[in-house]
Structures
1.
Amino acid sequence: MHLVVVGMGYVGIPVSVLFASKPGIKVTGIQRRSKRSGWKIDFINKGKSPVGGNEPGLDQLLFDTVKKGAFFVTDDITTYENADAIIIAVQTPVDENHQPRYESLKQVLTDIGQQMQPGTLVCLESTVAPGTTDNVAKPILERESGLKAGTDFNLVFSYERVMVGRLLHNLTYYSRIVGGLTTECAQRGIEFYKNIVSAPLFATDTLTAEISKVVENTYRDVNIAFANEVALICESLGVNVHDVKRFVNSLPNDTSNPDANPYRNMHTPGAGVGGHCLPKDPWLLKYGLDTYGKIKFNPEIIVKSRLLNDSMPGHMKTLLLDAFAERNMALSESKVTLMGFAFLENSDDYRNTPALPLFNLLKGECKQIVIHDTHIVEYEDLPITQDLVEALRDSDCLIVVTKHNEYRELSFDLLRKYMRTPVIIDGRNVFNRQEALTNGFTFRGVGLPR
Ligand code: SAJ
């Protein structure tokens, strides 16, 4: 089988090497020679993985599949002509008005439509607003190819559940939802994904699959917002939200009996919600409702949760000003140190990081601001350093935004040695509040007493 995968990113690369590692399957990756990502073509064809961070098994599998000629990347879109199956894994961002930007998706669909042959299986894996497969992808593919979806070619929406650090693992061991335009499409999709998935495969229609994908992440975003709101309540009442979370989650969690199960799973409050999934997917769900829904209404809980999570960097500034007020300090006279720029601990991924809005809220108001992150070398012209002492020296406030492991071992002695003023704002529950106070720090934390 010849599989063509479009979009050599977090989704496209692992799925390509997994299929390429199976007998009788050859994979061609398609990547535009864009300024940002064009370099990946030659990089991968040399057998090297452009995916950062620690992804067990990925580097080796990519090297092996490229070496044996089972995986090759090109920008030549005529490749679609001799594809038996095509996976679309291009980015589908939302803009500042929370509207999906489908330009690259539409271009890819047009290219495919113009080249593909009858009998091809087209699998859309990119996260899209519910309704996109039937109302955007299908019309473009049919118009450009002159073929009929469902009869001349098969169309499927099947979403990935990859997570940073577990790309290959999740693709292999997590169950998968396969939404087909017709039941025959779904069946063909199931047979196709059986090549790489050793967990249950569930057949459904495209719309149900699209909604399931964005609901998976919206569920998580709403749960984090719940934890953040409880944290604000705990700050106001003067208790530690992490005690409350520990007690709430101490209900028996007998997963073998989910219906009779009283379990709770309160998430973790923090400095904000970043990444490529959670800040985007709730808006895609709402866009689908607004655009294709027959009954119009505003999904308040989802929207308010998203806005509450986006307000957490601002809350971090509130905590900072509260701490400075206690010490009669002025922000304009102070050096502020942000600890962590990545959106996720022990990762170099800074997509939609809450550290950026917090930096922008502070940069014009404090004498100096520096960002420490050993996983990230640079981001635009921001003052990012990997040197902890340089970051701490003469600092008047340390603000924890990302829970990198190295911050768990920071000793108060070290901090007091280099900082000018002992103030900590803890956005990720790294420090013990009582110990900080005993060591003479002015201390504030998300969900902690002031
Ligand atoms: N966060 C909190 N509190 C929490 C959990 C996360 O504030 O209780 C914050 C994190 O600090 C981060 C953001 O939310 O800034 C996102 O964290 P995440 O763990 O959800 O990581 P992501 O963005 O990589 O989410 C992905 C998603 N996977 C897919 O879309 C396939 C998500 O559905 C997974 O649940 C998540 O990975 C995971 O569990 O690793």
Note: Residues 160-164, 216-217, 220, 224, 267-268, 270, 273-275, 277-278, 343-344 surround SAJ (CB under 6 Å).
2.
Amino acid sequence: MKPKLIAVSNMVTFVNPKAPVYPRLAQGKSWNEMTITWTSGYDIKEAVPFVEWGEKDRPRFLSPAGTLTFDKNSMCGAPARTVGWRHPGYIHTSFLKELWPDSKYTYMLGHRLPNGTNIWSKLYSFKASPYPGQDSLQQVVIFGDMGKAEADGSNEFNDFQPGSLNTTNQIIRDLENIDMVVHIGDICYANGYLSQWDQFTSQIEPIASTAPYMIGSGNHERDWPGTGSFYGNLDSGGECGVPAQTVFYTPAENRAKFWYATDYGMFRFCIANTEEDWRPGTEQYKFIEQCLSSVDRQKQPWLIFLAHRVLGYSSCTYYETEGTFEEPMGREALQELWQKHKVDLAFYGHVHNYERTCPVYQSQCVADASDHYSGPFKATTHVVVGGAGASIADSEFTTSNIQWSHFRDFDFGFVKLTAFNHSSLLFEYKKSRDGNVYDHFTISRDYRDILACSIDNCSRTTLAT
Ligand code: FE
Ligand code: MN
């Protein structure tokens, strides 16, 4: 196609190229803390960043924000250190504390200039998180591998995430009924072309400015040879995790390690990082055990494990070729923990499709797959939900018959979990193209069903009375 000049507009300029933009919420380290992270052109030396916030018709608060950035020297290789480098601007995080459960707050991002004037963002709002164990309607969306795409269909450097806009739009459409989002790795596929982080945070702004947007790390955020990542490939394009751990806040002890626990009412989420070693004896294994074992299941019955690569089960041809139907050393290292601590659901991305197993342990269905489970916990249901946007081209399923593989979809989609109360959970898989439900199941059970023993999941007992 030959471009042809038909008209010339006036010069287009920004009103304020440094303006605060793209607020993204994340759960803080305690249940009553919300963190707000955003991007601006103001270094701390130029202006003081803060958030003005409060409940409707109540006094407003001002909370300070921290400022971070990184430079080219923090990148591990090319293109992030070379042609892909672009200064990320300044990343600010404010910590809004002592929030009231379920209360609705509005907020504005601000920067105070030395002359006393304030630069403001527009007004946003969010709902504070419930107290852990609180009985109320709680709805969480989970997916991996979304990326970004051009809304106007224009050309993009690496057009690899064709489903991403559909997923984003379906979530925005349902935002009134979504309390939290978990994006388990392969966030934006910038792969060392740093301006794409701004493109991504812009695309998800309607979601992330309204509900906590919790992320995990994937190969496209972290992997780089000789830098301590578990895999020595070039998938991060030289970023080696730095943009991901700076652009997004996570309530992790060490944001570079990227594993953390977060509670949302009746849910406990344990978010692991497959790009660091998870095997017994490692720091991460200790974290996983601690996260799974420290939850009071009477209060938080719904226990969820998440990681980017498939540590459980996937019947895609890629893992079939490996001969493992999982990431090597995955379930061998962790399945006893999942079983012992009665993990309800384990979610993965990396494979760009959707798949749900039966309740499975040691590659055997412990119970028949179903659309309705009731009574005592039998084994974890494993779910691959890596079809949120990135190309599905290399994620075909095997044609062999796999006993534990219950439902497969070779398309773009995401999962929504709804906890109605302590006894009733709804799982829905929705396609990104229409937002309709294509796979679902419910779990109905009481506390005594969690306490009840099944294979390998009860403590030793004494004969004394
Ligand atoms: Fe991916
Ligand atoms: Mn991946």
Note: The radius of gyration is 22 Å.
